[in-house]
């Protein structure tokens, strides 16, 4: 109940928000919203001792039990980390937003989206049912979409929102497919049960595709290369949103998912390589691209991409611990998992801080373009301090938490490279690439600080007089800044109470706590990681200074063919190609449509008849009189003549001949009622033709090109031949008698000796009844068609 | 004997005629309509409950035992379809009370709408192939009149094509019936099934089933859908909504009936031919939905995509997939009604039809905008909305059957649906508001109510899927085990 | 007899389809009319035409010609009449509104 | 005024009764019974009431059953003329060379009422070789197309006279 | 030149009655002989069509002043309700009954509910056909 | 050969004669030069052929089944009543719609009368 | 023998019908065609009478009568169409 309450509180509050908003007004609504994560955070903190004690809080309620979808909630160590992030950062972001957003904005919408997101995110991390998880997963994409497009009148916002939505939802679909495969293999949607079936599932051939599909979902959400492209565009969102969703929480849903499934897939070689390679590539590519950005938020976006890659690669390294066949000490590899979680926490603090700093700059100066900024240090000393703390932490410098986690990353990469758990060889590249990416990271961190706060002020390029942010706005980043430093000094508290329980969830096979929770120390002697850090600083400074000179590298062709341009091109060419293709066959000409229909008939039905050996024509002529034959000839003659006649009256007359001839065939076939009806109907139809001819012009000869005529002719002949072939075959098919022998008792059964009429009026009276309705509809339809004419010049667009 | 089974068709028919006589008083017409619609829904629920209690029920018209007379068969599948059709058409007709021009109301708009519903419900319930043809015709004739009703140049031109093509498809139906009667000598679906099974279908019967496939594919808009965008995008909102919600679904239903009850023996037809058709339909629908900027066109191509999606369920051919398709059918009726009503409202409010011509409507019409957003998500199959559960089961069926390509095609199409709908939402509702609040045309709340109810329904079906689960499972079970249907109709009858 | 009828049906279908493929509305409608003729003949032929006595019990003692297809055709005839009537009126109304009886030029112009 | 009403002379009631009887008789014939049955006639009469009621505004055409003899005579004359002119036309059609000289001429009849003129026209048209094309507004002039004016105009005119005479016997 | 339709009109007056009688006969005899509601209705309406062609709408309307649309609807409703009657009596929808009754004038007569059903059919046919013809003709 | 058989033969011969008449009119339909003359041939087909054939059928049924085919008689009456009217109307329509008589025709008093009427009307409207 | 005679008459009728179809196609004037259709109707009627005799059934008597009636109506309608282009008038206009 408790856990369910945690998930649903944001939704309930969101539902109540409009009413509350009216009640308490714009000024207080932010506080109302902030209360939600704050309360939840407190509640979660209260749970920590239990969770740290290895307890799992869970609850399950039936939702769609027949489909195996339950409202199953499970709070364990892994979920807890993320939930703390969600509520903790959520509180700070809400606080920050109160000052950041002007009351002129539609705050109601904003906060509703924010609460929706919060609830969805909590749902993701607490769900113990795949479908429930998936539901919340998609909801995070949707609320993110709405938040990115908060300023929906901007083109860029809409573009960014759509891009984020399309890519993450695509990943979501893939995730769904993967989940369905898991269900098929395990017979349950319960995550804990599935994970418990690790050994059973390992033998299933479908486990590999399921794994890849789930990874695709995780990668799109956690912006792994090449699906990272939506994140920079998502920066169109208000900065609190960027801080919250697009760095601290939502993008980490993929991380959560990977961590969640580590006990299931961990140890599989595919899993290891996918995560490691995707992570490492993303790390490098993100950092490389971050350096060239002029927009501070874009820079942070790429930096986030890069660091999510780093976390992902760490999870990959760590998964080796679960492999039975991997070389080396599992505990050593598991440390990488620990590092991932630790890095993730730290990232949330310093990146959240930096986003808020950038937000302040943007808010007070009116721009975040580093080409227009500079020298703000003297105007905004507090903000500058925060920026330094955040940047240096991100760059991996002491005494900030980023230093610890960066060192751990280097350590893990080195361990993998030396341990070679799957003997691939490529592991050697991991520390090298990681190090290079760190150099880039150092550079862009320097850029943030230097280009924004140091150097000359450029008053001509900014609209406002620079000044420090209001105090309220500084509170949230201040708390984060304090955390950045605090964690550096007391990392093991977090390691023991927060990360430790999560590690137990991720690596259930490794039971010894010592294996799972390494002691974090700021100073661990001069080892390779430390050396690497020095290298980073040295090379980073050098490159920063010479940045102007090697910047041209971004204009080298392969770097310009970004995934982004591919996405854009795909949409554009997709649209153009769709139009071309669709216009090609959607001609609007009835002739073409009939051609399609009959071609389809010829190909499928004809194919089925002739290619499967069904065609066994019955050529037996049966008794046939010369008179019948002559009518066959007459009808054929009249019909064919119809193709050549010049006037519609002649055609109508010939149609009459056909109709009357049909009537005489009905006579031959012992069908007096039919002959009667056919005769009358034919005459009335002819009268109708004549009535309508008054309103229609005489027809002109069909002057279509010969090619068209030939095609038409071939199709027509094909249709005729096929119907005949079918008919002849059906005649030869003599397995069953008709049910209609029964009707020959009609006098006894229904009191009529005209069998046909007994069928029409009794046995199948329902047909007759409906046929009457059809006739009636047609009659009244004709009336309305004539009586209800649109006024002159009225077009077909709805409205009066 | 279950006379209640005829009511879903009889009530709308009788209502149609009564309304006809009430022409002078629109008020009275509306009163009667509401009463009739409510009782229609009540009856449908009742039927569903009876089926749950007693299993498959049937009504032999005139008391003539199958296979000699005509009969209505109520199994969970048909009853679910009837219920959904009734609810959806009730809401659409309720909507049209507020949105139909007076001159159209005078020209028997409501009677024709009721006839359409009658034809649709009859098609769902009938257990006789020829009667299916006749029910189709009731439905089609009503649709012919509705599509032309009060139309100008464009609409009439589209109607002309629509009718001509449907006439040809009715022709194919008769051709197929002729061949069917010439081979198995019976018209009762269950009896056909028995006779077909007895000879193991064989190449000729398979070939004949392909002719039926053409007929129903034309009706459903499966592969042979080119007639659809034009005709669904020209009539006014409520009519288009009726069409989109009901007509193609009847075709889909018929395809399922035909190929699960009668001609289920030929794997090549079901897996290869229908599978290919479904995928091509998906692709074609997707291309169309992206290609055009006319919102009515985009909506129409979405109809096509959904048809392809549901037919994937048939091509996969296992119980899970059937379940998915049934769920999806229910969902699609609701959501397409919703979509077309909203699209109609947008056209009504702006007088424009292209996404390039509208902008920022959310400021003027926030509720409409959010309902469209909800529709967008529902169409994409986002949980917990109505589309999800069907999509999930189809996906599950595909996994179970190993039809990964179909799975891919289906899910990929959802993405295109999302894209095409977001295009509408973002271009029309977002962006700079171009209509001043003073100049905006008011959108009456009473029109919003039916739309909102449909919106609630799409949420309700998704969230409350458990309520439908037993019925849908039963429907799928019958499809997977035609013997259940046959036993209910013929008893332990020999061929 | 059935053999010849089937051939005849084929010829009628050929002519009808050719007419359907033309651009003139009246030709198309005539095409549908001939299609109806063809299918009615097909139905009765497939029902085993030309065998048995007229299905009137008072006339003879049987065996009777199959009455069921006859009943079906009757229904089909009426329905195709209804459709044809509607189609004809629609054709001239379309001509009135659009000034053309060419099914290929009255297509909508829905793109810029 | 009702345009269907014939040219008067009889009371509407009598005429309706007559027609009703006619229908009843027709009914009996249509039912094809082996013997005369009063019930059948009565049934026909009831059917007739229905039809006459349905169509009573059309009513007014005259029927003279009592001049049966005149009618029989007319039929006889007609059959004679029919055979005569048939043979002559067959001859014309089948002759190796067409030697006919067709044309239209006017004939002014002495008959007056619509029924009389109609009967004359019907009889004339039924006999091969001549077709009535137009009746003038006053109902007196008949424009007749004849197959061969050269050889048969005289015969035609005498035929017309015969018919006129016989018709008048029936109608007056 | 003024024209005179005397021949056509005079004959039509007679012929119409023959057709009408024949139509009714067809309608009633359908139980045992060729005919029935459909054909009967069709023949009756073809008589009306003949009248419309030979005379004109207004003249015929004076003679037959009915609203044919309502006749059609009424007929269809009769067909529907005749099926409902059985359902009300607890039999399957559309159950027909027949029996032999000794009537005062008609003698031993077979009466069948199907006749009511067929009457509805016939009325619909008449109403519809005439509605169609009139609608088009009035559009000139 | 009993009486009935004789009647049967008579009936059959009547039918054949009807057929022959019909063919004669068909020949007329081919050979005759214009619509007016051809209509004469057609009228013959309607009358004599039908008269003979239906009469034959009537006799045949009477001879074989002692059945009095009132509908056949009625058919004869009907055809006799309508066929000339049909001929009259169609030929009138031909003339009114301006179909010319063939070259071998001798004269057209109707066309003359029409022309006269037209001129009178014109002069009246002028004056 | 009787039957053979009947068959002969049927063949003769169908010959006429063939000729009439030819006339419908050939024309040259529309009245020609209508006359030909009328002839077809009447010959069909006669043929059905003969067929009835061959099959020895009374079932087609109605058809015979109906054909007579309807070919009449058809011819009148066609004639009026040829004459005026409109076959049912609101009010007689002469
Ligand atoms: Na449809
Ligand atoms: Na048809």
TrEMBL record, chain A:
Residues 633-698 form the MrpA C-terminal/MbhD domain. Residues 127-416 form the NADH:quinone oxidoreductase/Mrp antiporter transmembrane domain. It is a multi-pass membrane protein. It is found in: Cell membrane; Membrane. Its main location: membrane. Signal peptide: none annotated. The keyword Transmembrane applies. Keywords: Antiport, Cell membrane, Hydrogen ion transport, Ion transport, Membrane, Sodium, Sodium transport, Transmembrane, Transmembrane helix, Transport. Residues 63-111 form the NADH-Ubiquinone oxidoreductase (complex I) chain 5 N-terminal domain. Belongs to the CPA3 antiporters (TC 2.A.63) subunit A family. This is Na+/H+ antiporter subunit A.
Automatic annotation (TrEMBL), chain C:
It is found in: Cell membrane. The chain crosses the membrane at residues 6-21, 28-50, 70-92. InterPro entries: CPA3_antiporter_subunitC, NUOK/Mnh_C1-like. GO terms for cellular component: plasma membrane. The keyword Transmembrane helix applies. Keywords: Cell membrane, Membrane, Transmembrane, Transmembrane helix. The keyword Cell membrane applies. Pfam families: Oxidored_q2 (PF00420). It comes from the Bacteria. It is a multi-pass membrane protein. Belongs to the CPA3 antiporters (TC 2.A.63) subunit C family. This is Multicomponent Na+:H+ antiporter subunit C. It comes from Bhargavaea beijingensis.
UniProtKB/TrEMBL annotation, chain E:
Residues 7-131 form the Na+/H+ antiporter MnhB subunit-related protein domain. It comes from the Bacteria. InterPro entries: CPA3_antiporter_subunitB, MnhB. Pfam families: MnhB. Keywords: Cell membrane, Membrane, Transmembrane, Transmembrane helix. It is found in: Cell membrane. Its main location: membrane. GO terms for cellular component: plasma membrane. It is a multi-pass membrane protein. The chain crosses the membrane at residues 6-28, 35-55, 71-90, 111-136. NCBIfam families: PRK12573.1 (NF009223). Belongs to the CPA3 antiporters (TC 2.A.63) subunit B family. This is Multisubunit sodium/proton antiporter, MrpB subunit (TC 2.A.63.1).
UniProtKB/TrEMBL annotation, chain F:
The chain crosses the membrane at residues 6-30, 42-62, 68-91. It is found in: Membrane. Keywords: Antiport, Membrane, Transmembrane, Transmembrane helix, Transport. It is a multi-pass membrane protein. Its main location: membrane. The keyword Transport applies. The keyword Ribosomal protein does not apply. Coiled coil: none annotated. InterPro entries: PhaG_MnhG_YufB. Belongs to the CPA3 antiporters (TC 2.A.63) subunit G family. This is Na+/H+ antiporter subunit G. It comes from Bhargavaea beijingensis.
């Amino acid at each position: 109940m408790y856990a369910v309450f945690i998930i649903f509180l944001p939704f309930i509050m969101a539902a109540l928000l409009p009413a509350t908003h009216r009640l308490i007004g714009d000024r207080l609504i932010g506080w109302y919203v902030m209360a939600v994560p704050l309360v939840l955070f407190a509640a979660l903190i209260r749970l920590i001792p239990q969770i740290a004690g290895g307890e799992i809080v869970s609850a399950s309620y039936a939702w769609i039990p027949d489909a195996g979808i339950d409202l199953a909630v499970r709070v364990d160590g892994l979920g807890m980390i993320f939930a703390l992030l969600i509520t903790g950062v959520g509180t700070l972001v809400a606080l920050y937003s109160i000052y950041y957003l002007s009351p002129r904005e539609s705050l109601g919408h904003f906060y509703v989206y924010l609460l929706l997101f919060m609830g969805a995110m909590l749902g993701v991390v607490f769900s113990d049912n795949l479908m429930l998880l998936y539901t919340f997963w998609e909801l995070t994409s949707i609320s993110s979409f709405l938040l990115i497009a908060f300023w929906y009148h901007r083109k860029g916002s809409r573009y960014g929102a759509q891009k984020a939505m399309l890519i993450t939802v695509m990943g979501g679909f893939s995730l769904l497919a993967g989940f369905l495969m898991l269900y098929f293999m395990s017979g349950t949607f319960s995550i804990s049960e599935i994970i418990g079936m690790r050994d059973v599932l390992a033998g299933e051939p479908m486990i590999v595709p399921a794994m890849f599909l789930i990874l695709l979902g995780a990668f799109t959400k956690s912006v792994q290369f090449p699906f990272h492209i939506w994140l920079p565009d998502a920066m169109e969102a208000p900065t609190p949103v960027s801080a919250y969703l697009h760095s601290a929480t939502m993008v980490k849903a993929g991380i959560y998912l990977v961590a969640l499934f580590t006990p299931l897939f961990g140890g599989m070689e595919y899993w290891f390589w996918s995560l490691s390679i995707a992570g490492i590539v993303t790390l490098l590519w993100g950092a490389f691209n971050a350096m060239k950005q002029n927009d501070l938020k874009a820079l942070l976006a790429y930096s986030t991409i890069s660091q999510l890659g780093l976390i992902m690669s760490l999870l990959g390294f760590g998964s080796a611990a679960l492999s039975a066949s991997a070389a080396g000490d599992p505990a050593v590899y598991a440390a990488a998992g620990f590092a991932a979680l630790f890095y993730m926490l730290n990232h949330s603090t310093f990146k959240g801080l930096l986003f808020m700093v950038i937000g302040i700059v943007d808010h007070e100066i009116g721009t975040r373009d580093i080409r227009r900024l500079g020298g703000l240090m003297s105007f905004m000393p507090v903000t500058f301090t925060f920026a330094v703390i955040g940047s240096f932490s991100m760059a991996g410098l002491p005494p900030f938490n980023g230093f610890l986690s960066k060192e751990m990353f280097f350590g893990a990469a080195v361990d993998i490279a030396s341990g070679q758990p799957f003997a691939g060889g490529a592991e050697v590249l991991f520390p090298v690439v990681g190090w290079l990416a760190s150099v880039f990271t150092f550079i862009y961190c320097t850029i943030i600080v230097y280009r924004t706060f140091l150097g000359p002020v450029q008053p001509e390029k900014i609209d406002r007089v620079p000044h420090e942010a209001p105090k309220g706005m500084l509170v949230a980043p201040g708390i984060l800044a304090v955390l950045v430093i605090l964690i550096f000094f007391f990392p093991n508290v977090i390691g023991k109470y927060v990360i430790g329980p999560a590690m137990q969830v991720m690596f259930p096979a490794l039971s010894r706590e010592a294996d799972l929770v390494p002691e974090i120390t700021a100073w661990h002697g001069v080892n390779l990681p430390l050396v690497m850090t020095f290298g980073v600083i040295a090379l980073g400074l050098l490159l920063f200074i010479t940045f102007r000179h090697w910047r041209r590298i971004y204009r080298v062709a392969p770097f310009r063919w970004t995934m982004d341009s591919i996405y854009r091109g795909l949409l554009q060419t997709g649209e153009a190609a769709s139009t071309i293709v669709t216009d090609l066959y959607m001609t609007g000409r009835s002739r073409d449509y009939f051609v399609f229909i009959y071609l389809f008939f010829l190909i499928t039905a004809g194919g089925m008849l002739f290619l499967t050996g069904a065609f066994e024509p019955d050529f037996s002529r049966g008794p046939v009189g010369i008179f019948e034959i002559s009518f066959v000839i007459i009808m054929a003659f009249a019909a064919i003549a119809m193709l050549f006649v010049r006037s519609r009256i002649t055609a109508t007359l010939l149609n009459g001949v056909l109709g009357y001839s049909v009537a005489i065939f009905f006579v031959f076939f012992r069908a007096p009622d039919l002959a009667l009806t056919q005769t009358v109907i034919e005459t009335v139809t002819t009268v109708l033709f004549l009535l309508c001819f008054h309103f229609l012009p005489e027809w002109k000869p069909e002057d279509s090109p010969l090619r068209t005529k030939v095609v038409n002719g071939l199709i027509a002949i094909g249709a005729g031949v096929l119907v005949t072939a079918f008919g002849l075959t059906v005649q030869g098919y003599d397995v069953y008698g008709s049910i209609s022998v029964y009707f020959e008792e009609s006098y006894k059964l229904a009191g009529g000796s005209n069998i046909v009429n007994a069928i029409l009026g009794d046995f199948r009276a329902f047909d007759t009844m409906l046929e009457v309705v059809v006739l009636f509809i047609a009659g009244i339809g004709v009336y309305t068609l004539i009586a209800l004419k649109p006024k002159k010049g009225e077009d077909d667009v709805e409205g009066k | 004997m279950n006379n209640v089974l005829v009511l879903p068709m009889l009530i709308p028919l009788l209502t149609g005629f009564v309304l006809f006589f009430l022409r002078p008083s629109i008020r009275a017409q509306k009163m009667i309509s509401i009463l009739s619609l409510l009782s229609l829904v009540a009856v449908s629920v009742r039927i569903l409950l009876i089926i749950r209690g007693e299993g498959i029920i049937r009504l032999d018209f005139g008391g003539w035992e199958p296979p000699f007379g005509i009969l209505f068969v109520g199994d969970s599948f048909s009853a679910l379809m009837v219920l959904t059709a009734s609810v959806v058409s009730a809401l659409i007709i309720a909507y049209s009370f507020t949105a139909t021009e007076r001159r159209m109301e005078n020209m028997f708009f409501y009677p024709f709408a009721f006839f359409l519903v009658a034809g649709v419900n009859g098609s769902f319930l009938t257990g006789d192939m020829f009667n299916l043809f006749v029910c189709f015709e009731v439905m089609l004739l009503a649709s012919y009149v509705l599509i032309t009703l009060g139309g100008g140049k464009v609409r009439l031109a589209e109607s002309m094509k629509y009718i001509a093509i449907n006439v040809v498809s009715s022709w194919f139906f008769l051709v197929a019936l002729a061949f069917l009667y010439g081979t198995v000598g019976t018209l009762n679906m269950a009896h056909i099934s028995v006779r077909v099974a007895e000879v193991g279908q064989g190449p000729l019967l398979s070939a004949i089933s392909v002719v039926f496939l053409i007929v129903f594919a034309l009706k459903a808009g499966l592969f042979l859908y080119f007639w659809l965008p034009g005709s669904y995008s020209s009539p006014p909102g409520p009519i288009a909504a009726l069409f989109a919600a009901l007509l193609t679904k009847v075709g889909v239903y018929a395809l399922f009936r035909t190929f699960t009850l009668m001609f289920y023996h030929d794997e090549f037809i079901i897996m290869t031919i229908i599978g290919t058709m479904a995928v091509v339909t998906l692709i074609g629908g997707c291309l169309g939905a992206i290609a055009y900027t006319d919102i009515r066109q985009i909506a129409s191509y979405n109809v096509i995509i959904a048809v392809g999606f549901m037919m994937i369920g048939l091509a996969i051919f296992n119980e899970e997939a059937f379940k998915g398709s049934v769920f999806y059918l229910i969902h699609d009726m609701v959501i397409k009604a919703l979509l077309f009503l909203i699209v109609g409202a947008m056209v009504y409010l702006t007088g424009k039809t292209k996404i390039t011509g509208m902008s920022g409507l959310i400021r003027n019409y926030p509720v409409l905008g959010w309902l469209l957003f909800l529709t967008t998500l529902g169409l994409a199959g986002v949980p917990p909305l109505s589309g999800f559960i069907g999509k999930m089961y189809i996906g599950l069926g595909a996994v179970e059957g190993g039809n990964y390509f179909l799975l891919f095609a289906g899910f990929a199409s959802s993405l295109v649906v999302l894209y095409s709908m977001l295009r509408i939402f973002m271009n029309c509702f977002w962006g700079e508001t171009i209509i001043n609040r003073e100049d905006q045309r008011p959108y009456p709340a009473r029109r919003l109510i039916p739309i909102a109810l449909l919106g609630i329904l799409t949420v309700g079906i998704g969230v409350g899927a458990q309520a439908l689960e037993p019925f849908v499972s039963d429907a799928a079970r019958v499809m997977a085990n035609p013997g259940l249907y046959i036993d209910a109709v013929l008893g332990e009858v020999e061929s | 007899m059935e053999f010849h009828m089937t051939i005849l049906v084929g010829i009628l279908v050929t002519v009808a389809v050719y007419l359907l493929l033309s651009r003139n509305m009246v030709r198309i409608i005539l095409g549908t009319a001939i299609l109806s003729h063809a299918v009615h003949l097909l139905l009765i032929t497939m029902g085993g035409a030309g065998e048995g006595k007229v299905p009137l019990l008072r006339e003879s003692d049987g065996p009777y010609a199959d009455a069921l297809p006859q009943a079906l055709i009757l229904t089909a005839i009426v329905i195709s009449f209804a459709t044809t009537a509607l189609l004809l009126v629609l054709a001239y109304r379309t001509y009135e509104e659009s000034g053309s009886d060419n099914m290929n030029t009255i297509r909508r112009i829905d793109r810029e | 005024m009702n345009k269907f009403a014939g040219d008067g002379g009889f009371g509407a009631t009598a005429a309706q009764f007559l027609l009703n009887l006619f229908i009843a008789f027709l009914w009996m014939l249509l039912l094809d019974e082996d013997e005369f049955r009063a019930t059948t006639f009565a049934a026909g009469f009831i059917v007739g009431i229905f039809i006459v009621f349905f169509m009573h505004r059309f009513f007014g055409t005259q029927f003279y059953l009592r001049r049966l003899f005149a009618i029989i005579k007319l039929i006889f004359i007609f059959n004679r003329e029919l055979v005569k002119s048939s043979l002559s036309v067959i001859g014309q059609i089948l002759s190796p060379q067409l030697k006919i000289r067709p044309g239209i001429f006017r004939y002014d009849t002495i008959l007056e009422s619509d029924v009389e003129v109609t009967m004359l026209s019907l009889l004339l048209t039924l006999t091969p070789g001549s077709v009535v094309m137009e009746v003038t507004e006053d109902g007196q002039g008949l424009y007749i197309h004849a197959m061969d004016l050269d050889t048969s105009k005289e015969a035609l005119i005498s035929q017309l006279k015969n018919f006129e005479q016989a018709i008048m016997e029936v109608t007056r | 030149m003024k024209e005179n339709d005397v021949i056509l009109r005079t004959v039509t007056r007679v012929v119409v009655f023959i057709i009408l009688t024949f139509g009714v006969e067809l309608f009633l005899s359908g139980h045992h002989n060729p005919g029935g509601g459909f054909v009967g209705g069709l023949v009756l309406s073809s008589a009306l069509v003949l009248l419309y062609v030979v005379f004109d709408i207004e003249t015929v309307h004076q003679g037959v002043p009915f609203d044919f649309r309502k006749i059609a609807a009424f007929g269809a409703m009769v067909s529907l309700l005749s099926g409902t009657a059985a359902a009300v009596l607890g039999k399957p929808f559309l159950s027909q009954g027949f029996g032999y009754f000794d009537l005062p004038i008609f003698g031993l007569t077979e009466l069948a509910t199907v006749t009511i059903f067929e009457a509805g059919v016939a009325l619909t046919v008449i109403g519809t056909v005439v509605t169609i013809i009139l609608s088009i003709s009035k559009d000139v | 050969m009993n009486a009935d058989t004789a009647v049967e033969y008579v009936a059959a011969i009547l039918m054949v004669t009807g057929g022959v008449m019909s063919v004669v009119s068909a020949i007329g339909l081919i050979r005759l030069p214009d619509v007016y003359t051809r209509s004469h041939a057609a009228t013959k087909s309607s009358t004599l052929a039908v008269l003979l054939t239906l009469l034959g059928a009537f006799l045949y049924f009477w001879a074989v089944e002692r059945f009095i085919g009132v509908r056949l008689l009625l058919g004869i009456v009907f055809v006799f009543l309508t066929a000339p009217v049909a001929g009259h109307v169609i030929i009138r329509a031909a003339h009114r719609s301006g179909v010319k008589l063939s070259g071998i025709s001798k004269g057209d008093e109707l066309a003359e009368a029409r022309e006269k009427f037209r001129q009178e009307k014109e002069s009246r409207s002028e004056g | 023998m009787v039957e053979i005679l009947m068959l002969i008459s049927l063949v003769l009728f169908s010959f006429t019908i063939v000729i009439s179809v030819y006339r419908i196609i050939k024309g040259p004037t529309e009245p020609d065609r209508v006359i030909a259709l009328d002839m077809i109707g009447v010959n069909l009627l006669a043929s059905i009478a003969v067929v009835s005799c061959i099959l020895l059934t009374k079932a087609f008597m109605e058809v015979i009568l109906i054909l007579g009636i309807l070919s009449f109506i058809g011819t009148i309608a066609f004639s009026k169409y040829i004459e005026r282009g409109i076959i049912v008038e609101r009010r007689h206009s002469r």
